[in-house]
Design goal:
505 residues, mainly alpha, three-stranded antiparallel beta sheet, transmembrane, NADH-Q_OxRdtase_suN/2, membrane
């Protein structure tokens, strides 16, 4: 028996390997660097890691090789754009995470215990959140490139496990944070089980775990179609859970509300890019020739997700829960790009993911600034008159809300116009009508918050806007500038995506 050494293309794998190396350095810093210098060291390593990985990604994007790690990863134009989006969003998220006031000083302590109080009095920092973030980023970079089901599952768990831990690290409302972490973990485990069952059925159908092998079996049309339908359904459950699509959305509001707000921003933006990247690849490559089997069900899910997210968001009194249901509605809009199954659908989805991700991080960054003596204030009634207390903060948040609503002069308008145009071109009129109506409904609750901030009198209940740190200010400023720039002058990014975004089959 001859052993064949695996062939790895380290140049293509470099961005992921750099992020993993940075995460391991962060673990060593936790073990060997004194606590007073740990936060600065971790921040430097995390930022340097993301910047170097992004530079390496730019350097190798035009390389001729298209596969790595024994063809388990496909390195194509769409993959490069998705990885770049993840790294940029992760970088500004790390700036937000660096505000350690959002994280508990003693994650393993019982909430309200003497040990926890002593840790807070000693100003202990939860710096392990930085390597956890980098491990999650590494999984996210792997997720959109995976070209077989085993690699896809490994990436899914790699990005999910750190997020389960990070969701329970909130400094304020500790019990709610731990409840969020437990719900996210348990429901995430169930979704992973569905994914594995789906992979087993697809292997039984095609005798292959690779996307190319599954596509070849579908094209041949000689295998058991029942196995194919069950496999697609179960795989879809696992992936739709990660994007919070209806009816697999139940974790989103509680996890968004209970998690530390910087972690909420990170998972709401970067995880969505990675998960939709994986969904796009598997449906555009592996399941493309079986569209009549999965398209009707996906259309129903997309419409239900749009309508449900938009309607339920109206009744929310907590700003983080409102943004959670808003993200559910946006997941429905993004599914329109998947259903389009066309080049224009792919381009529109990648643009929308990047634009929505940046606006999301910026919006949640604003939420971290509204506080009272007990911590963050997320009750919308207490945001009344915020525009009179802090016009700049309220105005910036209003701008992000207008971007979510798809108002012209924002990136959200370009994103929605592009994705609805792709849906129309593909003949999905039901998606188009539902999307436009859901957008109108969503605009109502976004504008309601703006009216509350600027046209209501402030309530004297101790709510105030704290002065943001330089890092948080950088996150908000970058998100707002890019959101405006993509709304006013989107052509360079649209042209880049149009010339680059392709999936290699």
């Amino acid at each position: 028996m001859t052993f064949s050494a695996p062939v790895l293309d380290y140049a293509l794998l470099a961005p992921m390997l750099i992020v993993l190396a940075g995460a391991l350095v962060g673990v060593l810093i936790e073990a060997f660097v004194r606590s007073t210098a740990r936060a600065a060291a971790q921040l430097f390593v995390a930022v340097a890691t993301i910047v170097i990985a992004l530079a390496q990604l730019i350097r190798v994007r035009n390389q001729g090789s298209t596969s790595a790690a024994m063809s388990s990863l496909t390195f194509d134009g769409a993959g490069v754009l998705l990885q770049g989006s993840i790294l940029i969003i992760s970088l500004i998220s790390i700036f937000l995470i660096a505000d350690q006031d959002n994280f508990t000083a003693a994650a393993a302590a019982v909430p309200g215990s003497l040990e926890e109080r002593q840790a807070h009095q000693a100003s202990t920092k939860t710096t392990e959140v930085f390597p956890l973030t980098l491990f999650a980023v590494a999984g996210m970079l792997l997720f959109p490139l995976a070209s077989d089901l085993i690699t896809l599952f490994v990436a899914l768990e790699m990005l999910s496990l750190p997020l389960y831990l990070m969701a329970g690290l909130s400094r304020y409302r500790r019990l709610a944070s731990q409840e969020a972490a437990l719900k996210y973990f348990l429901l995430g485990a169930f979704s992973s089980a569905f994914f594995l069952f789906g992979a087993a059925f697809l292997y039984g159908y095609s005798s292959s775990l690779t996307f190319a092998g599954i596509q070849a079996a579908i094209t041949g049309g000689t295998a058991n179609d029942v196995f194919l339908l069950i496999g697609i359904a179960l795989i879809s459950v696992g992936l739709l859970f990660k994007i919070g699509a209806f009816p697999f959305h139940a974790w989103s509001p509680d996890v968004y509300q209970g998690s530390p707000t910087p972690v909420t921003a990170f998972m709401a933006a970067a995880t969505k890019v990675a998960a939709f990247g994986a969904i796009l690849r598997i449906f555009y490559v592996a399941f493309a020739n079986a569209e009549w089997q999965w398209k009707p069900a996906m259309i129903v899910i997309a419409i239900a997700t749009m309508v449900f997210g938009s309607l339920v968001a109206i009744a929310q009194k907590d700003v983080k829960r409102m943004l959670a249901y808003s993200s559910i509605a946006h997941a429905g809009f993004l599914l329109a790009g998947v259903i389009a199954l066309s080049k224009s659908g792919l381009d529109a989805t990648i643009f929308y993911l990047f634009a929505y991700g940046l606006a999301t991080v910026g919006g949640f960054a604003i939420v971290t600034l509204v506080r009272d003596s007990a911590g963050e204030v997320t009750d919308l009634n207490r945001w009344s008159g915020l525009g009179k207390r802090s016009p700049i903060v309220a105005g910036t948040f209003a701008f992000f809300l207008l971007a979510f609503a798809g108002i012209p002069m924002t990136s959200g308008f370009i994103g929605k116009f592009s994705i609805f145009s792709a849906a129309y071109q593909s003949g999905s009129l039901a998606i188009l009508i539902a999307g436009v109506l859901s957008s109108a409904i969503a605009a109502f609750f976004y504008i309601r918050v703006i009216v509350l901030m600027f046209f209501k009198d402030p309530v004297e209940d101790g709510t105030s806007v704290v002065i943001p740190s330089a890092l948080t200010t950088s996150t908000i400023a970058f998100s707002a500038i890019v959101t405006l720039a993509l709304g006013v002058f989107p052509a360079p990014l649209i042209n880049l995506i149009a010339t680059t975004a392709t999936f290699l089959r």
